[in-house]
Amino acid sequence: MSGAYSQLLEATIGYLESLKQKGVRYVDVSPESVNALIEPVLREVGSSEGGTQITSQAVIQSSRADGPSVYDSQRLSSADKVSAMDQLRDEISSLKKSPELLASGAKLVFGVGTVDADLMFVGEAPGEDEDREGEPFVGKAGQLLMKIIQATGLDREKVYIANVLKYRPDTPGKSFGNRKPRPDEIESWFPFLMRQIEIIQPKIIVGLGATAVEGLLGHMSTGITRLRGNWQSYRSVPVMPTFHPSYLLRNQSWAVKRQVWEDMMQVMERLNMPISQKQRGFFLRR
Question: Disulfide-capable partner of 162 in 7, 47, 73, 111 (CB 3.0 to 4.6 Å)?
Fold first, then answer.
């Protein structure tokens, strides 16, 4: 074994051991990230050993769908969950911000709700309103999401709501408005959402919109229009893809509203929540 490869292996093991001591039990790594990490070593190996090549696939492969089950994680008490969440929040807050985030003065938007939630909602990224308040889904789309949640018989304090990104994406040259997260931003921030899911251990996750669902699944073989309403899986946790509330604000069709409500009724049934005849009739044309 080459000295360069041995150093890489020892450093990787040491880092993983440090994560294990912090309570992290699963690490999601994209092949692109691994390539970036091992490129200097590949150059060294190639120059010292006549061009020997190592690919990232030979080092590690990852799949959100095939990873260890969240249910295999140690069951945490409510106090342990709160402590773990506080630690994670502090860890994110202590991260060195990118020049773009520093320039925009972005505020951390961590998550809101109960750590004992059976149901977790995941969006894509904070917007202008969320950045100002420091909470996810507080703007018009958030108000609509609250109406949807309340229609099921739950409320904001009985679920957990988070985004893939923990800061509002910067909008260079613009004083207002929001933008869709880039794929590299999703991959960079997803491990923090992954740890939130691991702490909460929800029974069901609702993915709000294509970007959030793609973050959870790691891929999307079809668009959100066809994917919504069909159960998916994130590390053995059932995932219900549905439209983002902002889409409903742009599209006032009763048919689209009914589709989202049908998705939520599937969630309610899976959670063994009662569904009244009145609820079953929501958004049906009389």
Answer: 111
Q: Where are the alpha helices (DSSP H) in 49-115?
A: 56-59, 78-93, 99-104
Task: Give the model's pLDDT for residue 41.
Answer: 44
CA dihedral 64, 244, 121, 235 (to 10 degrees): -10
pLDDT of residue 2: 55
Do the beta carbons of residue 70 and residue 236 sit within 8 Å? yes
Beta bridge partners of 232: 239
Q: What pLDDT, on a 0 to 100 scale, did the predictor assign at position 51?
A: 40
Closest CA to 200 of 123, 267, 114: 114
Q: Where are the domains of the chain?
A: 3-59, 70-280
31 Cβ neighbours under 8 A, 6+ residues apart: 56, 57, 60, 61, 62
Q: What was the pLDDT predicted at 286?
A: 64
Report pLDDT for 14: 63
Rounded Cα distance between 67 and 69, Å, is 6
The SS3 call for residue 228 is coil
Which residue numbers in the chain have pLDDT < 70?
1-11, 14-67, 73, 99-104, 172-177, 286
| Inter-CA distances, 116 with 25, 97, 164, 197, Å | 19, 30, 19, 11
3-class secondary-structure state, position 56: helix
**Cα 256 to Cα 128: distance, rounded to the nearest angstrom:** 26
For 46, residues 6+ apart whose C-beta sits below 8 A from its C-beta are 52, 53
Q: At what angle do helices 254-270 and 140-151 cross, to 10 degrees?
A: 50
Q: How far apart are CA 140 and CA 129, in angstroms?
A: 9
Q: Do 169 and 3 meet the contact criterion of CB atoms below 8 Å apart? A: no
Instruction: Give the CATH number of domain 70-280.
Output: 3.40.470.10
